[in-house]
Design a protein that fits this description.
This protein is of the alpha/beta class and 434 residues long. It has 3 domains: 2-196, 3-Layer(aba) Sandwich (Rossmann fold); 207-293, Orthogonal Bundle (N-(1-d-carboxylethyl)-l-norvaline Dehydrogenase, domain 2), CATH 1.10.1040.10; 295-428, NAD(P)-binding Rossmann-like Domain (Rossmann fold, 3-Layer(aba) Sandwich), CATH 3.40.50. Helices cover 42% and strands 13% of the residues. It has helices spanning 10-21, 33-40, 51-60, 70-73, 97-106, 126-138, 157-162, 175-184, 199-230, 234-242, 263-276, 282-294, 297-306, 332-342, 355-362, 396-402, 417-422, and strands spanning 2-6, 25-29, 64-67, 79-82, 115-118, 144-147, 167-171, 194-197, 313-317, 346-350, 367-368, 381-384, 407-410, 426-428. The strands form 2 sheets. An 8-stranded mixed sheet has the order 3-2-1-4-5-6-7-8, sandwiched between helices. A 6-stranded parallel sheet has the order 11-10-9-12-13-14. It starts with a strand and ends in a 6-residue tail after the last strand. The mean pLDDT is 96. The structure holds uridine-5'-diphosphate-glucuronic acid (UGA). Residues 121, 150-154, 210, 213, 217, 251-253, 255, 258-260, 262-263, 321-322 line the site of uridine-5'-diphosphate-glucuronic acid.
């Protein structure tokens, strides 16, 4: 099948490459010439395990092409996927300028039989608006559009794409279903359903999935904070509730709040959609508020325990919003850094891949260390913000000698509090009984 993927950001590049890898002829299109030149030479603009090799292999095999030209790619396409960014506007709504620019550009080039598919996360109603716009601009009444939301997680995107829990497509015309099913068939096993529905339901599915997951996180964070106050342990509580299959264990790890480019943006966008429809999305607003507050939880614990922080040194492990990515958008680490800097703290940080991105954002306000142990030199405490696997089993004896005070504030509950106490550490987790 001939596929054009418009937008070579995270979603577009992963999706386009995976479709090429399953034998399709894929052209990834972007208006950013530098990016396209880089991609042609195997330079991948994002960090995603396994992606670089896959891009290079499929490009060499002649199945994956990169271009800035709509004229060369769009007229031949069986499917055009739009995967451009939909950043958050000041009022919390999704900014669709990029999307409409693409729609206007492809309209005069669109072949009769092509399906135009929105991959980007867009407000409910956008696909239908696109259908109306393409109908108007082409003067044809046979336009086929589809909403095909993605459920990839950064850091595990290829695995998620190739083994999806489900594929969701919203269509305006049943003929589109067959082609999209064929495209996804290589990735679907019997237990992984291909779900077709209306355009609005598919758009809504994407938001509801992310908002449900964000709700689980804010809920467990609130419960962990309560555990802290009543001498209960959130890990025990998690076990106690998780065996109830209606509740389960997943996405109920307390921490320093969710970040990234998706949950914060999508929760706010759905609040906005609700408001536009004269509905007050009270649960979602609380999810958002609880999350903002949770990003300050580590700072509050540090302040409460250490008092005046002026001139103190704090080591900080992990900057990305989660492990296996260099993405620092809405990262809790940035909130903690800002608060500690205000207090006059010297901060020594380490992250396996995100340090360059942080340097670009805040410059040399903190000290960047090559190794996570280097951050501990002369530090009054260690704060852990991201649960990179290299932080899970450190050499505690070595750490004891490096740290000035044996104090650890762990925003991801990586260690056993009892063992930490036995080793002589003052150990503060999120909702853990010491
Ligand atoms: C999320 C969804 O999981 C994907 O299904 C979706 O496709 C994607 O958004 C998107 O809309 O594009 P992602 O943002 O990559 O994926 O990251 P997640 O792994 O979902 O983690 C999000 C945040 O939640 C992280 O900050 C993580 O630390 C936090 N989290 C996650 C917790 O605090 N506790 C948990 O139990 C799980």
């Amino acid at each position: 099948m001939k596929i054009v993927m418009i937008g070579t950001g995270y979603v577009g590049l992963v999706t386009g490459t995976c479709f090429a890898n399953s034998g399709n002829d894929v052209t990834c299109l972007d208006i950013d010439e530098k990016k396209i030149e880089g991609l042609k030479n195997g330079k991948i603009p994002i960090y995603e395990p396994g992606l670089t090799e896959m891009v290079i292999r499929n490009h060499k095999a002649g199945r994956l092409h990169f271009t800035t030209s709509y004229e060369e790619s769009v007229p031949d396409a069986d499917c055009i996927f739009i995967a451009v960014g939909t950043p958050q506007s000041d009022d919390g709504s999704a900014n669709l300028k990029g999307l409409w620019a693409v729609v206007d550009t492809i309209a005069p080039l669109l072949a009769d039989d092509t399906i135009t598919i929105i991959k980007s996360t867009v407000p409910v109603g956008t696909n239908r608006k696109m259908l109306d716009r393409l109908t108007e601009l082409t003067g044809r009444d046979n336009i086929k559009v589809a909403s095909n939301p993605e459920f990839l997680k950064e850091g595990a995107a290829i695995e998620d794409f190739t083994k999806p829990d489900r594929v969701v497509v919203g269509v305006n015309d049943d003929r589109a279903i067959k082609r999209l099913h064929e495209l996804y068939k290589p990735f679907l096993r019997t237990e992984q359903p291909f779900l077709s529905m209306g355009l609005e339901s598919a758009e809504m599915t994407k938001y509801v999935a992310n908002c449900m997951l964000a709700t689980k996180i804010s809920f467990i964070n609130e419960m962990a904070n309560l555990c802290d106050l009543v001498n209960a342990d959130i890990n025990d509580v998690r076990r106690g509730i998780g065996h109830d299959q209606r509740i389960g264990f997943q996405f109920l790890f307390p921490g320093v709040g969710y970040g990234g480019s998706c949950f914060p943006k999508d929760v706010r966008a759905l609040i906005h959609v609700a408001a536009e429809n004269n509905m007050n999305a009270e649960i979602l607003k609380s999810v958002d508020d609880v999350n903002d507050a949770q990003k300050e939880v580590l700072y509050s614990k540090i302040k409460k325990t250490m008092g005046d922080l002026k001139g103190k040194t704090i080591a900080l492990w992990g900057l990305s919003f989660k492990p296996r990515t260099d993405d620092i958008r809405e990262a809790p680490s940035l909130v903690l850094i800002e608060q500690l800097l205000k207090e006059g703290v010297n901060i020594r940080v380490h992250d396996p891949v995100a340090m360059e991105n942080v340097r670009e954002e805040i410059g040399d306000k903190v000290e960047y260390c090559e190794h996570h142990y280097d951050t501990l030199e002369g530090a009054d405490a260690l704060a852990i913000v991201t649960e990179w696997s290299e932080f899970r089993n450190p050499d505690f004896d070595y750490m004891k000698h490096k740290l000035k005070q044996m104090t650890i504030f762990d925003g991801r509950n990586l260690y056993d509090p009892k063992k930490m106490t036995e080793m002589g550490f003052a150990y503060y987790g999120i909702g853990l009984k010491g």
